[in-house]
Amino acid sequence: MKAVILAAGEGVRLRPLTDNVPKPLLKVLGVPILKRLIDSFLRSDVNSFVIVTNYLEEKIKSFLANHFPTADISYVHQEEIKGTGNALLLAKSHISENYFIGVNGDCLYSESLITQTVAAAKEGIISVGGKLTKDIENFGIILEEKEGIPRRIIEKPSNGEISEGFANIGIYSLNKDIFKILMEQEENNEISPRGEYEIPDAVNILLEDNQYKKRLVKLEEDDYWFDLGRPWSLSEATKTLLSRIEEEIEGTIENNVQIKGKIILKKNAILRSGTYIEGPAFFDEGSDIGPNCYIRKYSYFGKKSRVGNGCEIKNSILGDNTHAAHLSYIGDSIIDENCNFGAGTITANLRLDKKSIPVIIKEKREDSGKRKLGAIVGEGVETGIGVLIMPGIKIGHNSWIGAGTIINENVPAESIYFGTQNYTLRRKRKDAD
């Protein structure tokens, strides 16, 4: 059984987190999305993969060569990003079996969704994965012929058409006949309203053909699926996975550390005296926390990360080798790898008017839907002392922020950004000599 994994996208909406890293290699709890996906497939006896790549593809190839040296992995380069249908068609020469798996390489799927999809392929069934939602205007929605039998996928219907439906979550069991359909679509230039060749358009033709058995693979109550399309979706995925952890203590806990709730403390990690922790939280290998820190729920600390005296971290992701030495607050934020925050660096995460926080995505102002959202900081950023970062601000990779600066606009990558202050001498003190 083969799986075709679509991993060519640039992940523009996730910048600055994808400035130097392809989207499928973004990490959730320290593990890249693509590794989680392949591990799950291997556990379901899918042991052959075709990876469709483009953006930073050498990093994907290098990563998979290091982590799956014996796996049967082939690569196909998508020269021009022309949609998921075009990406899938490029894998045609690698597929000889009648049924195979097609899946987005930038989504996080629970194990059971993969298991059910693989089972459908082994049984010779066309399947489409779906999540029940009322947010129908933001998804392709799967219509059912009858319970559990998909009939058609319609793209972002209006509320007037239907009130709820199953969102298409980008995981399929497919018959190789889909390649003929995709070829005909390209020959006839049958593009979607977005100007691309789309997998759902081809899947609809398979669903209309009565020669195929069909199945809707539903997201059940204990399942999860995350389309990691916006920076804050990484926080949502982290929260979900942390809420499911079993406690694991391998590192060192000094005296006078208080822990409420479950934590994972990996080897060579240390929690120093006076630190108060509200779980769930995850401290990866070699992380160093404290003394006298306040760690709040749903925080992840990457390998060799360092949080020093008097810091508070809340619902945030700190990447590998990122340091906040002392007297800093990081709330509802995503801080990439190899960053260094000077003393007193503060991430604001709440507007005074308590409204949801907008973020600039692809040069447009987009409502995050989050009442609390802090900073989104790229790799290698350094701040001086006393820096204040306003809610929803993005800082590009390898930028330097000068001491005492208030950041209320996005900072481009590889910039030096600093503020200036004006001083006024009002008068001499009356008691001065």
Report a brief summary of the structure:
This protein is α/β, with parallel strands linked by helices. The protein folds into two domains: 2-229, Spore Coat Polysaccharide Biosynthesis Protein SpsA, Chain A; 238-417, UDP N-Acetylglucosamine Acyltransferase, domain 1, CATH 2.160.10.
DSSP summary: helix tally: 7
> How many separate domains make up the residues?
2
Q: Which runs of at least 5 residues are low in confidence (pLDDT < 50)? A: none
How helix-rich are the residues, as a percent range?
10-25%
Beta-strand share of residues: 25-35%
Class by SSE composition: alpha/beta
User: By CATH's scheme, which homologous superfamily of the largest domain applies?
Assistant: Spore Coat Polysaccharide Biosynthesis Protein SpsA, Chain A
- Rounded to an integer, what's the Rg over CA atoms? 24 Å
Largest sheet: 9 strands, mixed
CATH topology descriptor of the largest domain: Spore Coat Polysaccharide Biosynthesis Protein SpsA, Chain A
Identify the overall geometry. globular
Kindly state the number of beta strands. 40
CATH architecture identity of the largest domain: Alpha-Beta Complex
Spatial gap, N to C terminus = 88 Å
CATH class of the largest domain: Alpha Beta
What would the average pLDDT be, to the nearest integer? 92
Q: How would you explain this protein's 3D organization?
A:
The chain has 433 residues and is an alpha/beta fold. β32 (358-361) and β33 (364-367) form a beta hairpin. It is globular.
